[in-house]
TrEMBL record:
Origin species: Rubricella aquisinus
GO BP terms in the entry: L-phenylalanine biosynthetic process from chorismate via phenylpyruvate
Database matches in Pfam families: Aminotran_1_2
Top-rank taxon: Bacteria
Gene Ontology cellular component terms for the protein in this record: cytosol
Protein name, entry field: Aminotransferase
Family per record: Belongs to the class-I pyridoxal-phosphate-dependent aminotransferase family.
Highest classification ranks of the organism: Bacteria, Pseudomonadati, Pseudomonadota, Alphaproteobacteria, Rhodobacterales
Keywords: Aminotransferase, Pyridoxal phosphate, Transferase
Domain Aminotransferase class I/classII large: 27-388
InterPro entries: Aminotransferase_I/II_large, Asp_trans, NHTrfase_class1_PyrdxlP-BS, PyrdxlP-dep_Trfase, PyrdxlP-dep_Trfase_major, PyrdxlP-dep_Trfase_small
Molecular function, one GO term: L-aspartate:2-oxoglutarate aminotransferase activity
Enzyme Commission number(s): 2.6.1.-
Length: 394
């Protein structure tokens, strides 16, 4: 029966990783895969994560099943981290999920149950897995333009114009902060305008929150989407700890629902637990326990926040250095937006042919749409990179 299977389209990022690994050139630069890297090029295990993991290993007394909805301490820590004190926590429910992808998948299934017929709006461009998962689930997709290539900023007018077609009950997926792939983010005024639009038109936001703390700070990054969540009766958040706790392969995430009433939140919780039962019964415990231990201990929390700040500042510092070097080498302001952007990614705005020239002639690897993982740079790479870009676009 397996003969009937069609070959799957190659994942572009995975192919890029393989091509990079096979490249024998010294000084090649990998800006492809979206993981944080430090100056030595490694994706570190964070200090607080290591300490919590070690402590949990000693303290653990059983491996028996936990609750279907997830570990109680984990969920109690995750809810206030996501929503702050903007809403009554009695209206909030959360389900432990295997990473942010798992959280989004659970939330899509919840929406499918609660709102058959809803359309799912995603930004154009967006993290490709949004569209892929929705397609896989057979859910209808609509797109709103998001990014203005010419200015490097959010094209808010175009976004709002497209959302004029939204129907009551539609789900609008928004990146909570650090938009992937563009790096361009909504400001507080734009979040407020979207909130008013949602309240008027009856659409429900689903916030994809995969980079909290990697933009301007934990509170700063949360301010926009929290202001929206606080003013609307219903919203959802798909949270990932892959990046901000560095737990990538261990898979910690949460599907969070803010309901209109505590009773509705209870209904949502029952549905989320049932969805878990159907998918995999129980989400993996190990990484969620690490997050719970860190967030449940003031010293570990402070250390996690300090290390997250260092990571964030490394990325922002690289952004400033990159923008300066590109300005110098190209003698133009074309790339100034890189310093304004936040999060791990920016799109350089090159053509696919220019991206290919950078790879072939200079050993610089980025995704075909010219998305760069800023954390992939070593400070020493920047001058050579800027010179290569200047030569390529000349
Ligand atoms: N949303 C966005 C926008 C992402 O970039 C990612 C990770 N690349 C995720 C969700 C999911 O992350 P994970 O499943 O690894 O936690």
């Amino acid at each position: 029966m397996f003969e009937a299977l069609k070959p799957q389209p190659a994942d572009k990022i995975i192919a890029l990783i393989a091509a990079y690994a096979a490249d024998p050139r010294e000084g090649k630069i990998d800006l492809g895969v979206g993981v944080y890297r430090d100056d030595s090029g490694t994706t570190p295990i964070m200090r607080a994560v290591r300490a919590a993991e070690t402590a949990n290993l000693q303290a653990e007394t059983t491996k028996t099943y936990n609750r279907l909805i997830g570990d109680a301490a984990y969920l109690a820590a995750v809810k206030p981290l996501a929503v702050g004190d903007t809403v009554d926590l009695a209206r909030v429910t959360a389900s432990q999920a295997p990473g942010g992808t798992g959280a989004l998948h659970c939330l899509f299934e919840l929406c499918k149950l609660a709102r058959p017929g809803a359309r799912y709006w995603i930004s154009d461009p967006s993290w490709p897995n949004h569209e892929a998962i929705l397609r896989h689930m057979g859910l209808p997709i609509a797109k709103y333009p998001y990014y203005d290539e010419a200015t490097g900023a959010v094209d808010f007018d175009a976004m709002m114009a497209a959302l004029d077609d939204v129907q009551e009950g539609d789900i609008v997926i928004l990146h909570g902060c650090c938009h992937n792939p563009t790096g361009a983010n909504l400001d507080l005024t734009q979040w407020a305008a979207l909130t008013t639009h949602a309240a008027l038109r009856g659409w429900v936001p689903l916030i994809d929150l995969a980079y909290l703390g990697l933009g301007d700070g934990l509170e700063e990054d949360a301010a926009g989407y929290r202001s929206m969540v606080s003013r609307l009766p219903e919203s959802m958040i798909g949270l990932s700890f892959s990046k901000n706790f560095g737990l990538y392969r261990d898979r910690a995430g949460a599907a969070i629902v803010v309901a209109e009433t505590p009773e509705d939140a209870g209904m949502a919780e029952g549905a989320l637990a049932a969805i878990n039962r159907l998918n995999y019964s129980f989400a993996p415990h190990h990484s969620a326990a690490i997050v719970a231990t860190v967030l449940g201990d003031a010293d570990l929390t402070a250390d996690w926040q300090a290390e997250l700040k260092d990571m964030r500042e490394r990325v922002t510092g690289l952004r400033v250095a990159l923008a300066e070097a590109l300005k110098r080498e190209t003698n133009s302001d074309r790339f100034n937006f890189i310093a304004e952007h936040r999060g791990m990614f920016s799109r350089l705005g090159l053509t696919p042919a220019e991206v290919e020239t950078l790879r072939a002639e200079h050993g610089i690897y980025m995704v075909g749409d010219s998305r760069m993982n800023i954390a992939g740079f070593h400070p020493d790479d920047i001058d050579r990179f800027a010179k290569a870009v200047a030569k390529t676009i000349r």
